[in-house]
């Protein structure tokens, strides 16, 4: 069984499907024997990729939940914290092997074995690195290349090995054609509204030249966090209320000091009762605490009040 974090993004979707193909081709397993689970389905970007790249002849079926584990081997992909995996305790009943690239990962202490490479900028890059040359066809190369493109934000976060891997994949996949087919040509009106509402609700902190911006939205919190950085903030903290509780996205520019990020993480984790997972400059916290929308402003105020003396900010 292969399982990813809930609402799988393009990187999780691509690496899961590519890994299933590798297991089937390398070890002669039957496709139906390898179950793929995307808890709470997949993201809209992954859905678009599925329509573009998966042929009608390929019967790719996946599950949206794990109900029971009967001593199975479970490969966990692209998942940094237990809050990203519904039914986490049930998953641990099997033999678990984690493959991930996130800088902060809190579930490695629970699994049977793990392979984590923090120098990689996507799980698709990790899967591509273990794929034998002879088994990399056009469709699989395009899947993995798409995962890399999306998770690195078009190579804005990357390393030499990322480019080497992408070059290998693009020799089998037409990069320009891939991008033209899967990119969003016009931003959805609901996403634009979320960004504008977020700007209306901004709460700012300043420490010398450093600007920290906090806000809250109901959806598109990751896009909003990135947008706030583009507008001039050095750190963005976006809180979103979900059915399961809170989802908090923390984004920062590369020049922000580690100590500043550490203090922000500690305050938010304590008040939100959760743990951040992800990369140094792109982290996510998911918490089961449920609060009313009107109480999010109070949470933001508490975070701000604690950060002011801790950071020496105003």
Automatic annotation (TrEMBL):
<feature type="domain" description="DDH">
    <location>
        <begin position="1"/>
        <end position="147"/>
    </location>
</feature>
<protein>
    <submittedName>
        <fullName>Phosphoesterase, RecJ domain protein</fullName>
    </submittedName>
</protein>
<dbReference type="InterPro" id="IPR051319">
    <property type="entry name" value="Oligoribo/pAp-PDE_c-di-AMP_PDE"/>
</dbReference>
<dbReference type="InterPro" id="IPR038763">
    <property type="entry name" value="DHH_sf"/>
</dbReference>
<dbReference type="Pfam" id="PF01368">
    <property type="entry name" value="DHH"/>
</dbReference>
<dbReference type="InterPro" id="IPR001667">
    <property type="entry name" value="DDH_dom"/>
</dbReference>
């Amino acid at each position: 069984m292969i399982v990813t974090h809930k609402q799988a993004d393009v990187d999780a979707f691509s690496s899961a499907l590519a890994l299933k193909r590798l297991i089937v081709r390398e070890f002669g397993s039957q496709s139906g024997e390898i179950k793929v689970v995307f808890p709470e389905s997949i993201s809209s970007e992954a859905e678009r990729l599925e329509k573009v790249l998966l042929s009608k002849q390929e019967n790719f079926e996946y599950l949206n939940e794990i109900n029971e584990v009967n001593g199975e081997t479970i490969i966990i992909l692209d998942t940094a914290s237990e809050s990203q995996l519904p039914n986490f305790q049930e998953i641990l009943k099997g033999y678990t092997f984690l493959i991930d690239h996130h800088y902060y990962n809190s579930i490695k202490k629970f699994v049977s074995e793990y392979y984590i490479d923090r120098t990689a900028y996507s799980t698709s890059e990790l899967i591509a690195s273990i794929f034998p040359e002879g088994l990399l066809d056009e469709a699989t190369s395009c899947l993995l290349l798409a995962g890399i493109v999306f998770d690195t934000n078009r190579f804005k976060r990357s390393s030499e090995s990322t480019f080497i891997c992408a070059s290998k994949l693009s020799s089998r996949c037409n990069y320009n054609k891939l991008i033209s087919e899967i990119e969003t040509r016009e931003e959805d009106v609901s996403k634009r509204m979320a960004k504008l509402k977020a700007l209306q609700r901004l709460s700012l902190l300043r420490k010398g030249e450093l600007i920290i911006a906090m806000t809250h939205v109901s959806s598109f919190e990751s896009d909003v966090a990135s947008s706030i950085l583009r507008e001039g903030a050095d750190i963005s903290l976006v809180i979103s209320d979900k059915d399961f509780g809170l989802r908090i996205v923390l984004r920062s520019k590369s020049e922000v000091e580690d100590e500043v990020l550490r203090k922000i993480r500690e305050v938010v984790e304590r008040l939100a009762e959760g743990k951040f997972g992800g990369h140094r400059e792109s982290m996510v916290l998911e918490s089961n605490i449920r609060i009313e929308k009107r109480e999010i402003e109070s949470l933001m105020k508490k975070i701000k009040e604690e950060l002011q003396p801790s950071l020496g900010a105003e």
